[in-house]
Predict the structure.
Amino acid sequence: MIKNRVNHSSRKYVIIAIFFVVIMILLIKLFLIQLVDQSYKTSSDNNTLRYITQYPARGKIFDRNGKLLVYNEAIYDLMVIPKQVKNLDTIAFCSSLDISRDFFNEKMKKARRYSPFSPSVFMSQITKEEYGKVAESLHQFPGFYFQTRSVRNYPYPIAAHALGNIGEVDKKDLEKDSYYKVGDYIGKSGIENFYENELRGEKGMKIIVVDVHNREKESFMEGQFDTLPVAGKDIYLGLDAELQLYGEALMKDKTGSIVAIEPSTGQILAMVTSPAYDPNELVGRVRGENYHRLLNDTLKPLFNRATSGIYPPGSTFKMVNGLIALQSGAINSNTKFPCSGKESQPIRCTHFHSNQVALTEAIENSCNPYFWEAFREMFASSRFASSKEAYSFWYDLVVSFGLGNTYKTDIPSEVSGNIPNSSFYDKMYRGVWNSLTIRSLSIGQGEILVTPLQLANMAAAIGNEGFYYPPHFIKSFSDDSPLDSVMTTKMTIDIKPKYFKDVKIGMCRVFEGESGTARFSKIDSIQVAGKTGTAENPHGDDHSLFMGFAPADNPQIAIAVVVENAGFGSQWAAPIASLMIERYLRGYIKDTKKEKRFIE
Amino acid sequence: MTTRNNIIGRIDWVLLLMYLALVFIGVSAIYAAAFNETHPNLFDMSQHYGKQVLFVGVSLLAGFFIMLIDAKFFNAFAYIIYGLSILLLLYVLVGGATIAGSRSWIQLGGFSFQPSEFAKFGTALAVAHYLGDIKTDFSKPKTQMIAYALVLFPMMLVLCQGDAGSALVFLVFILVFYREGMSGKILLAGLLAVLLFLLTLYFSKWYVLIGLMVIFVGLFFLVERTKKNIWKMIAVFTISVVMIFSVDFFFYKVLKQHQRTRINIILGIEKDIYGVGYNLHQSKIAIGSGGFSGKGYLQGTMTKYNFVPEQHTDFIFCTIGEEFGFIGSFVLLSLYFAFLVRIILLAERQRSAFSRIYGYAIASIMFFHLMVNIGMTIGLMPVIGIPLPFMSYGGSSLLMFSMMFFVFLKQDANRMNIL
């Protein structure tokens, strides 16, 4: 040894002693909980524990005035724990439930495959009446018990697309979130889906000791391990149930949609898509059957035209073009352009009016040549070096109206429509194009496509004179938790308010002017500003369009109406919009003759 | 006799059998915990037990190769293996995958691997190599500092991953240092610090202070009242009081409410019925319901209801407790104890200091895992997710513990060749 080191080998005893003491402590504790403390044992081997999930009440959904739109109704699931099924009199069991032997065998096989020890749903969604018949004899059948569940019920048969529906979780839901167990319900679409986490609440668990006779004896360990369910939050929507109901009635037997927005908040007042269906059809055991029927319907009632239907905006787009031309400085509100009616080049006019018109008359008469000239004038303006530069000025402002994109709020199945960018035209025309090439845009035709929702939002933005809040359904939660900031972010449009005022005057003249396109839809003592549109449809008859807001100086409702293949906007869309506005602002229709045409 | 026969003849078969027994019990318990009636085949790769059988195969294969390698390899390459494990720990901080809240996994193909497991092995080798060097004198403060640093560095890296449980394991090297000559006072002080820390959190600081005073007054009358003893007592008492107050201050003034809640839940002071607290309760019910002789293999109802989450991993002991009762628990803990004691005794008979220190290191690591893991399932320890050696489900854990074990077995079998 080089150095005289102390030998510490006797310290092995200390270390072994530490090991020993710790393991002894573990054994003593094990001795205590396994042999001494009886509270950890169930009283007999034949007793079993039953873990009953306590489902929370799903949050209710109300409209903006506190009218109930969606609530819960009790329904029962018959559960089975395969390992606890003993000495079952299968014949008696099947006859009391009125099921076939094959059905029984199949369900048992399925339950066993899921887990012999955990509860599975044997038969789901048994109504109160059926439950009453079976409940009293159930004690003869160990291993089976009822679990109370709830399904959704809709007092108004409306807004099926917006509200959405709930259904059993599928494999993907189970993988995504461990909260869900097989047989649980989850929001499948619409509001139910978007606000799933707020509506669902928290499940609780009750542990009950069950004896050999399938009788629930007591709460396990005095409920020490039970957890209480926490009810989901209630949701208040901006939707007005009465207005929605009225809109759906107006659109009956027509194809199209209505979207109404409160301009000051972006809350959706009504979202009608037609044809629609009663949300109660997708509840309970009939859900699957009805769903397939709706899915295969040639009129596509499951398709939400308000958010997924895309249409050329036609003349309703002229205000946007007018505003952008004003903002560019190429024209002012007094600039007049000639119109030669049907002889006009390169775009003819479909209306008859005086030869020289300024902006307000142009809107009143929906003069095509005026908007073409304004468009051309803007592209020719010295402030832009090229057509491309002018186009991108136009494009940026169009998009700022909330067009060409989705809002990404709580609205289901939104599509973005189409506002082409300049590289689209570069590709289409191999780089050589100017205002003349894309002249259709000046009257809202060509490649532009918008959804009714975007059209309504555009109306709201014009009504607000240059800003909007992204359209959304939610108004508030029952616990007043804040809304997602997407819904409360003010979006502004870089166009001077005074230009909006000019445009608004024109929009009022659409109703009030002697040649206004919607003069027959005027409402007594309510000033409406709006614009009709007739969108050319390459697949069939033209679509009838309208967009507008009222009252003109302080808009409380902005609206867009699309009636597919119905022809002129002034004939169908404008009167429907006018009825909706009057119904909302006045609460009733003064001149009931007007609705006769729509409601029998 | 050839060298090879030599090695086989000198393997400690008793220790090897104990290892195999633990692995066997582990697979059986996982089979019971994860049992799926539709896939009763033990080798079904879609099930946890099928995969664990594969991991056992891989571990045994690794063990076989370790037995073939020259025994001096691990001593010679200790620092390289240690360096590699440090690199992996650093890598995981930037490129690691997050599983169960801690960023401590490396994903390789379909398998994920925890470098902190590997770091324990690397640290054991490095400490053994450093202290085992004939030129190293552990009585020098500088040597001690270097030795501590070898342990603390990987520990800090693991802590940075947010895996406090695995980081704590490194503290157990205090036992190794103690064996190699570290002052017993440090060991005592360490134990005292841990004890005071826990007591202060579990109870009010005033109770702890009163308890402390009672102990010291008692000592004052029991111990010979020399001047030296009195001063010592006053010093220890003062340090303890400072310790209590600083823990108290840190906990209530420095930490934020959500951090406090998290610690409280981990310590089981606050109940979090859906999270950690829930596991613990269910685990205690499962073990408690086992009674004296258990419910019988594959008959555990708590196990069957999947009521103890993570049962095949960190809570695997529940299955033993429920299905084999107190008898089973007793036998298993005795087997672990015998296994650990045998490693210590074999370590003591080594001629090479490297082998001895290495033996102590792995015994201590396994001991710590055993203590915390089983302690946690019966509510004696906070719920810290570290696996039960050789038994918990998981490839990287089983492989690392097996490699640690086989390296020692090889060192022991080779002990006669060291002069």
